[in-house]
Amino acid sequence: MRLQGRPVILVGARPMADAKARLLERAGAILVGEEAQASLAVVAADDEAAVARLKARGILVNAVDRPDLCDFTLPAIIDRDPVLIAIGTGGASAGLAAALRQRLETLLPAGLGRLAEALFGARERLRHRFPAIDERRRAIGALLAAGGPLDPLVEHMDPAAAIASAERRGDRCEQVVVVSGDPEALTLRAARLLGLADHVYHDRQVPNAILDRARADAERVVGEPPAAPPPGLTLHLIWKPQ
After folding, report:
1. Contact 62, 54 (CB under 8 A)
2. Predicted model pTM
3. For residue 138, what is the enclosing H or E element?
4. pLDDT tens digits, the chain, 242 residues: what are they?
5. Which CATH superfamily is domain 172-239 in?
6. Where are the domains of the chain?
7. What is the chain's alpha carbon radius of gyration, rounded to the nearest angstrom?
8. Rounded distance, CA 64 to CA 72, Å?
9. Is the domain 76-108 a CATH 3.40.50 member?
10. Would residue 24 be called left, alpha or beta, if left means φ above 0 and alpha means ψ between -120 and 50 degrees?
């Protein structure tokens, strides 16, 4: 939800309210008191009466550390402006969300936002170079794939130059041998190909847990691929369990 310039009610005392105030102000919200007009409220206190009063006015409430009283929850945030990653547990454990945020912070390059801005700046050029949407998606997917020219988990000093040098990928067919029904047993290459494939041909025995790692819009066909692969990336999953 865009909070820039919008009033948000904040009820509570330090230090709990201070933490929520910093989060809301960073999102551009205008903090107001309980009697003000607003659509959202955060109650950073053990005050069920305040929660009831606000809800009676039709205001959506986040009650800190009381998921049973919450109309919405506040996720842990990783900010690589304009990239924003939110980690939520539906109120089950704020500590778990915070721990995951801290671990993921170490994996994401500081320049991830710069990469996003370069991709945004290249949208028209990429649309002109790859007019077909499937072709454009494959080209961008190849750029951003693990180990690719613009792997998002690697720091890139000049992402715009890498985008400018992107080359069209021809139609091709790749084979992957599936040895387990556990998606975690997939090799990095297999997982990457599943995420990029336009067409997935597979043995009937390949478990759904593996097939679900493919893109939701990828075509799935039981059997072997044709001699001449269809446009895009075709993946042939062969079931050979150990």
Report:
1. no
2. 0.62
3. helix 133-144
4. 889 999 999 999 888 899 999 989 989 999 999 999 999 999 999 999 999 999 999 999 999 989 899 999 888 899 999 999 999 988 888 899 999 999 999 999 999 999 999 999 999 988 888 888 877 887 788 788 887 788 999 998 888 887 877 654 557 899 999 999 999 999 988 988 898 888 999 999 999 999 999 988 889 999 999 988 887 789 999 999 97
5. Tetrapyrrole methylase, N-terminal domain (3.40.1010.10)
6. 1-74, 76-108, 112-164, 172-239
7. 24
8. 10
9. no
10. alpha
Distance from the first to the final alpha carbon of the chain: 48
| Domain spanning 1-74: CATH 3.40.50.300 | no
Side by side, the strands of the sheet bearing 199-202 are 172-178, 233-239, 199-202, 219-222
Four-residue CA torsion sign, 108, 156, 27, 25: positive
